[in-house]
Design a protein that fits this description.
- The structure holds three protein chains of three kinds.
- By secondary structure, chain A is α/β, with parallel strands linked by helices.
- Chain A contains ten helices and ten strands.
- In chain A, the strands form two sheets. In chain A, strands 6-7-8-3-9-10 form a six-stranded mixed beta sheet, sandwiched between helices. Chain A has a four-stranded antiparallel beta sheet with strand order 2-1-4-5, with helices on one face.
- The longest helix of chain A has 18 residues.
- In chain B, 71% of the residues lie in helices and 0% in strands.
- Chain B contains 13 helices and no strands.
- The chains are: A alpha/beta, B mainly alpha, C alpha/beta.
- Chains in contact: A-B, A-C.
- At the A-C interface, helix 6, helix 7, helix 8, helix 9 and helix 10 of A face helix 7, helix 8, helix 9 and helix 10 of C.
């Protein structure tokens, strides 16, 4: 189903339309011929549709195997859908009819912050080069000087200093590495950033710093976020809207405070119940 | 750690140098290899004579034992002479040069070929990977000497006789290099397959970089450390391979003898009493191959990622 | 001291290093009462896992216990020889690790592994051991029919339950659980923690629960010790500590943890400035002072002792 342009709300920046992604988990052909077993598929994403307003954060919540990471990867073009599509301001990354230039323009508008602070930065590259790479790829700077200036700007924007450009990733802590990842994501001045569990691997106090940074950047730069997480408490302070995924299907979606206050499905209720609570301990807890 | 350190200072204070200094075997091996390389590089300056200049040879000098004056000419040679009056010391140094040159170049060829194929196989996966790996599997079932001989033989058959000697060294290098690429390819493929899944590669794909760019700029720097170890050990193998081929008469030409050739020459005279013609080249070869091997072993242990 | 199953006094662990020694645990003292669940909370590098390793005697060389005493029910256990240490390990103190995949031997059935542990530590015969193993599986809500199943046939949460059954099988006095639920989904996490709590109450086993998650502490532990840079910042009753945290670090930790019960987009999470110092660059005096908003003059020069009320901070010291 293709929505005519006029039907799309101006405020809706990201449209996920009936997205499906199936993985072929079958045994190799020869083994199947011999054993006679049928092909096996996994519907990691099963008919998921939702929209994200410009400048807002939409959280996809689910447990492992829910499909949230798969959707994240399809959104930034690392994976293709089996059917359905994701539109970024009306453009579809996986549309074969697009020209190379149009494709590149769309790519420039999206970025991703990954979960692992250790694997998301090339250990052999200096931080300055890691940040400069998107600048060079999209030809956003004219000279070495210009590049250095922009790298410095990016580092300062995430709370690091210009001298950090000369260092290697292993010289930084986990929280600082995530900041570098965020700086890299900002380099091409994207409109849409997918954050895939960006703080799951971080300590609590560091998580607070990184989450506050992300929110500040959203305010200052008007960014739209798709925030993937399993932690409902984090969602509460980060997202305007939540979608709950279970086994590839979007079973519920709602504005954050409403969903947590009155969840519609049993699964959501279970998720909310299981979230650990620090405060509100009454004496009868034990 | 706020002040920036120069490269030299960082190296001086590194764990790498520290480990090196702590292992006497390694230091000795390194010294031996360095001495041999220096001798080979500066052969022209160090060698007392040019053993391949037929005009300077005096047959009467033949079979002179080491450090003894010749019965006829009264000249003394540190390591003695061979059947044609060649100073063995000079011959060994020049032979060392050939052995090292062939060994090093062959390893570089094997490395470039193996690393490239390994990267492609690991990154691309699918049928490309299967093809390359099956080729590797097939090659490995044959002893590398046989493969080298095969390539050498084919080349010789194809070339007209007057070119054979000139091109012999090149063919030798290609033959040995082509027979040693597999360990590089397999190791690099494994590491590539691991690195390819890491998020920094995803980040590069995200901005639209092509496979080639990602393989060379991002993955290659991260797969190189085991390559250095394999290269060192393969160097020892290549040196031995070259010596074997030359010994069998299918390697270095008589105009540019390597250590292997000298060993072949010396072999004829071992049991007639002129032991030095065989033993000195053989010892040199042993020292070279063993030292390189030990260095490689140490490198492998020291570059092993350790817990921080 | 009589109702404590474990007593640690002035424990100090040292890792010699080329550039000087690193001290991941520096003068820690605490007790674990019989039957209680005590939490060890701290961020990465605080030394909580190292404390567990020290107690059970599993510190990797070149690290070693430089100073201090560890007492298990009035017996000293930090200076035992190998065979004596092996009798304690697994039998009187057992451990639950974070990753159930690597804690279980993939090549043997879970029943086998349970029986082997029981036979190693308890004076029973094979039949009795099997009976106990089956009972152990039932206790952790795993169908005893799955006695002959292999670890890979179970989900993560079930595997962790098998690991708990293993830990309890030799009837230990103390279990050290190092981040037992960090690798599990949130819904499964709650189940596993409830199970651990219930069983330890029933068996009277004490638990040291090591985690970085305050929520896990709040829901599972009786008392909690907060570690920072290898030192004890605060220790006390869980409810008390969570309601009225004293040490500025504890306050900061609790304030930075987002809550699921309240807050929204406009909430700005409290953040402690800076990061935990590296072991080779520890600040002088109180390790937390560079990040502390309430630091006093002498916090930089003198390290605060642990006060009787359980907090190591100059703000609360008498005199």
């Amino acid at each position: 189903m293709v929505l005519p342009a006029g039907f799309m709300l101006m405020a809706d920046f990201i449209h996920v339309e009936q997205l499906c992604r199936r993985f072929d988990l079958s045994e190799p052909w020869l083994a199947r011929m011999i054993s006679g077993r049928p092909k096996r598929f996994l519907d990691a994403v099963d008919d998921v549709s939702f929209t994200i307003e410009r400048g807002k954060t939409y959280a996809l919540v689910g447990e492992s195997g829910s499909g949230k990471s798969t959707i994240a990867r399809i959104a930034v073009g690392l994976l293709g859908p089996s059917s359905g599509r994701i539109l970024i301001d009306g453009h579809d990354l996986h549309d074969r009819s697009l020209s190379e230039a149009e494709h590149r323009r769309t790519r420039q508008r999206l970025q991703m912050v990954f979960q692992s602070p250790y694997a998301s930065l090339n250990p052999r590259w200096r931080v300055g080069n890691i940040l400069a790479e998107p600048l060079r790829t999209f030809a956003l700077v004219d000279s070495r000087q210009d590049e250095r200036r922009r790298v410095q700007e990016l580092l300062e924007q995430v709370g690091l200093s210009a001298s950090d450009a000369r260092r290697f990733p292993h010289e930084f802590s986990g929280g600082q590495r995530q900041r570098i990842s965020i700086a890299r994501a900002l380099a091409s001045r994207p409109d849409f950033i997918v954050c895939d569990e960006p703080t799951s691997a971080l300590d609590v106090s560091v998580q607070a710093q990184v989450l506050n940074l992300l929110k500040e950047l959203q305010r200052d730069l008007g960014l739209t976020f798709l925030f993937i997480t399993h932690d409902l408490a984090v969602v509460r302070v980060m997202a305007h809207r939540i979608g709950v995924l279970k086994a590839g299907q979007l079973i519920e979606e709602q504005a954050t405070t409403e969903l947590i206050a009155s969840p519609q499905s049993e699964y959501t209720r279970m998720l909310i119940r299981s979230a650990p609570r620090i405060r509100n301990q009454n004496g009868s807890a034990h | 750690m706020s002040t920036e350190k120069t490269l030299i200072n960082r190296f001086r204070e590194s764990d790498f140098l520290y480990d090196f200094k702590r292992s006497p075997v390694t230091v000795v091996s390194f010294v031996i290899v360095m001495i041999l390389i220096m001798l080979a590089v500066f052969a022209d300056l160090v060698a007392p004579t040019n053993p391949f200049d037929a005009a300077s040879l005096n047959l009467m000098n033949g079979f002179t034992p080491p450090m003894e004056p010749n019965a006829f000419t009264g000249e003394t040679f540190v390591l003695g002479t061979d059947d044609q009056g060649r100073d063995l010391f000079s011959a060994i140094i020049f032979g060392l040069r050939v052995s090292l040159f062939v060994g090093l170049t062959a390893v570089i060829l094997a490395m470039v070929l193996g690393v490239s194929l390994g990267l492609i196989a690991g990154y691309r996966g699918g049928w490309v990977d299967s093809l390359i790996m099956r080729a590797a599997d097939i090659q490995v079932t044959f002893p590398s000497i046989l493969i080298a001989m095969l390539i050498f033989g084919i080349a010789r058959g194809l070339l007209p006789p007057h070119l054979r000697d000139e091109v012999a060294i090149t063919v030798l290098i290609i033959a040995i290099g082509l027979s040693e690429w597999v360990p590089f390819a397999r190791t690099v493929r494994g590491t590539t397959m691991v690195e390819k899944e890491k998020e920094y590669v995803q980040a590069a794909r995200l901005i639209g970089l092509g496979s080639g760019q990602i393989m060379v700029r991002h993955i290659l720097p991260n797969v190189l450390s085991p390559v250095l170890v394999i290269a060192t050990i393969t160097l020892a193998l290549a040196i031995i391979a070259e010596a074997t081929l030359s010994f069998l008469g299918v390697g270095a030409p008589p105009t540019e003898p390597s250590l292997g050739t000298l060993i072949r020459i010396g072999q004829d005279f071992l049991f007639s009493g002129e032991w030095w013609i065989l033993l000195f080249p053989a010892f040199t070869l042993l020292a070279l191959a063993l030292s390189v091997n030990l260095l490689g072993d140490w490198l492998r242990d020291t570059l092993n990622p350790r817990l921080k | 001291m009589t109702d404590s199953i474990l007593s640690v006094r002035n424990l100090r662990v040292v890792f010699p290093h080329r550039h000087g020694a690193l001290v991941p645990i520096d003068d820690i003292s605490f007790d674990v009462k019989k039957g209680e669940i005590i939490g060890f909370v701290g961020e990465s590098g605080a030394g909580k896992s190292m404390t567990g390793a020290a107690i059970i005697g599993l510190i990797d060389p070149p690290g070693y216990i430089d100073q201090g005493e560890i007492w298990l029910d009035n017996e000293r256990i930090d200076q035992l020889d190998v065979s004596a240490a092996n009798r304690i390990r697994g039998r009187r103190i057992s451990m639950v690790f974070q990753d159930p995949l690597t804690s279980l031997n993939p090549l043997r059935t879970i029943g086998d592994q349970l029986v082997e542990t029981i036979l190693t530590h308890l004076p029973v015969n094979a039949d009795e051991a099997k009976r106990k193993a089956m009972a152990g599986l039932e206790e952790v809500d795993i169908d005893p029919d799955r006695f002959n199943a292999y670890p890979h046939e179970f989900s993560g949460g079930m595997r962790q339950r098998v690991v708990i059954a293993l830990a309890l099988s030799a009837e230990p006095e103390l279990i050290i659980a190092d981040e037992p639920t960090t690798a599990l989904d949130v819904s499964v996490q709650a189940q596993v923690l409830d199970l651990l709590k219930k069983l330890c109450r029933e068996h009277g086993t004490s638990v040291i629960l090591i985690t970085h998650d305050m929520g896990v502490i709040a829901e599972t532990t009786d008392r909690v010790a907060v570690l920072y840079a290898g030192r004890l910042a605060e220790i006390g009753d869980t409810h008390q500590l969570l309601r009225h945290p004293q040490h500025p670090y504890t306050r900061g930790l609790i304030a930075s943890t987002p809550a699921v019960e309240y807050g929204d987009i406009s909430t700005e999470l409290f953040q402690i400035s800076g990061t935990m110092p590296r072991l080779d660059a520890l600040p002088s005096g109180c390790a937390f002072h560079p990040r502390c908003e309430q630091a006093l003059n002498y916090c930089a020069s003198r390290r605060p002792d642990l006060q009787p009320d359980g907090v190591a901070c100059w703000l609360y010291a008498d005199g």
